[in-house]
Amino acid sequence: MTSKQAMSSNEQERLLCYNGEVLVFQLSNGKFADKEPTKTPILHVRRMVFDRGTKVFVQKSTGFFTMKEENSDLKIMCCDYVSDFRTGINLPYIVIQNSKKNNVFEYFLLILHSTNKFEMRLSFELGYEIKDDLRVLNGPLILWRHVKTFLFISSQTSKIISVLGNLSSIQWAGEIENLGMVLLGLKECYLSEEECTQEPSKSDYAIWNTKFCVYCLESQEVISDTYIIPPAYSSVVTCIHICTAEIINNQLRISLTALTRKNQLISFQNGTPKSVCQLPFGDPCAVQLMDSGGGNLFFIVSFRSNNACAVRKDNFQVAAKWEKVSLVLIDDFIGSGTEQVLLLFKDALNSDYLTSFKITDLRNINYSSEPSDCNEDDIFEDEQDNRYLVVPPLESGLKVGFSSLRELQQHLLLKEKIISKSYKALINLVQGKDDNTSSAKEECLVPFCGEEENSVRILDEKLSDSFQDSEQVVEKIWYRVMDDSLIVGVKTTSSLKLSLKDATLSLLMDQAHGSGFRLLKCQNRVIKLSTRPFPAPYLMPCETGLEAKRVKLTPDSKKEESFVCEHPSKKECVQIITAITSLSPLLAFNKFCCTVLLQIMEKESANCPKNHYVVCGRVVLSLEDLSTGKYLLTFPKKKPTEHMEDLFALLAAFHKSCFQITSPGYALNSMKLWLLEHMKCEVIKEFPEVYFCKRPGNFYGTLFTWKQRTPFEGILKVCSRNQTVMFQCLHNLIRILPINYSLKNLKSGSENFLINNMAFNLEKELGTLSSLSSAIANHESNFVQRCELSKGKSSVIVDTLSDRREEIHPCRKKLQREKKKMLQTNLKVFRRGLEVHHWLSWISSLLTADLWISQL
């Protein structure tokens, strides 16, 4: 970045670009605004921003700093922005030199904050004047050259330190990641005696006696002298711009661009020249990189002849050139999100730099201070400029969005791949197959939560314990097709006690070409059917003891979808677990196979459930099987039902309803007559509680169960194809019911739960009230004894101490008051006890009837 000094003798001016603003530093002898000049020098700063509407730079804010040195010879050395080690934020700085007497020179480094306040960050004195090679690096750190030695001072140490690398010149200084602050320059090389047998020429000596190297300020040693610039170019390179720098295999690899004395711009990649551009002007002095967006990169080269040019990075061709340029600045001056170059031209009639300028990104953005006539073409160009200002940010936003989308897609693909491999490994383990995952793939797997290698062995042991043999649990597997549903059922052993919350039946469909398995969406049901007929509960003898009446309720009580309720004394039943899935998506395959997997959850403790997996078998179905009706439900009209799997399929797929029927005045003896004669039902031989309806029409296939709990009350369960058939059955039923009947819709399995719960609560209340009654009776007997004892003692005291009545009269009154108060209290308790006795007798009569009902 280049800056120039103004022509005025008593005023110096430097310009700097920072965050899209142009900072104008002016050092004057106390002249500020309309005030009179003073002997105290003042440093002024103005923040200028570009107004796209008026196409001029306007002043945003100002600030000043008063120098303490009076009648001093001050001079601005340089200005730029560096990173402050305290905050890591880039801030503008300015270096000022103060010439004192006796050849003593004092240097100040001031930092400008966002509030336009200056801070004295570094100051030091030298016995000589710094004339050239003054650089300010991050920290801030000031580096300069004196005679043949390079020295630096940092704000952290405030000590002057010499560079020990034997550098003859420095072409670039800056910070490289993982290396810190480094210097890139020429180092003198001393030839050995064998190499000096012949006296080299001046050109050879200039080439082979120096070489480029990278010097680290922190370690104060040369870290690399290869892969930078070939020795043949060491004598012609004048300026370097580092593009990239990284360490590969402990070697520093650098990509850079250099200016030469031959008026060339050369690109070097790891010490090898890649591209060369012949510059249009002579004596280049500085090169900067400009990113105009859309992948368009330009090298902006400044010349000492007040000229400038732009070179494309992709093809190393000159894109533009400008003459009579006094200053070149690069920043985002118009706020478009990309960089532009600001060219300040030297106007002989006006000393202000910001009156003659040009802003361009060498693509679509062009602003100039030259006056032009306003016409329709200019308005159209302004609209085009506005479009160009909007399009680059949108393009960059789209690129960021597409990049995020690609990363998300890759992440999802990786998750799907991991899940697919894990799923395949699980199925192979279930089926007892060998896992063909290669060791190379297994090495890529990273254990979660920092588990050790033995976790694999422990996991295998747990999996082997979790999987059970199907012969121990499963008796039979079957499947049927009904309408648009595939019904798969598993008959379990009688020793296995399951509920819907404890068992899950899953269907794993094999994918084509062995690529894995797909889990089908299923609806599960647990069906329990009793195999023995039971007499009516009101005809069975019941135990009258308290333990026989009590029904224990626990928080883990579950409702099972059992179509027939078991009797507690005999629990012989058939247990079926079914899975229903849609058949339509499966018809796209000519033949498909499914693995039936049963998951059983057992609670070892309250918070530690244990899962067991059972491979029940495979389901194979083809379009030929469906067309021939091989697995369709069959119920012959004139023959009894033979295949119980068809009955189980109906129970799994049909809609279930439960009704409580009560008739206070008449017995419900006509229900079985209605089922057998009116509905033409068939009693299933294997399950006598189930009635299969064979009445023609919509009623055909409907299932009923009738459980008569008392002569006047019973539970009817209807398993129908749909709600319409259920309402038709009810409409047919009410014709034969007695007068004043009551029909109540219940949730399946909820009536016993409610009755048992109420009976248990009433029994608990009865025990509490009985204990309260006995306590009151004991308290009453004790009270009578205390009263008789008190009367005996009082009579003895009156007979023996009659001559001292006047002395004990106050005590006697006090005793009578306490006795009366105690009597009133106990009488209240006694009355309450009598009321409790009456209440207990009434509750006992009600409870006797309810407990009798609960046994049903």
TrEMBL record:
Q: In which domain of life is the source organism classified?
A: Eukaryota
Please give the GO cellular component terms listed in this UniProt entry.
Fanconi anaemia nuclear complex
The Gene Ontology biological process annotation of the record reads:
interstrand cross-link repair; negative regulation of double-strand break repair via homologous recombination; positive regulation of double-strand break repair via homologous recombination; replication-born double-strand break repair via sister chromatid exchange
Name the InterPro entries for this protein: FANCB
Q: What is this protein called?
A: FA complementation group B
Q: Which organism is it from?
A: Callithrix jacchus (White-tufted-ear marmoset)
Gene that encodes the chain: FANCB
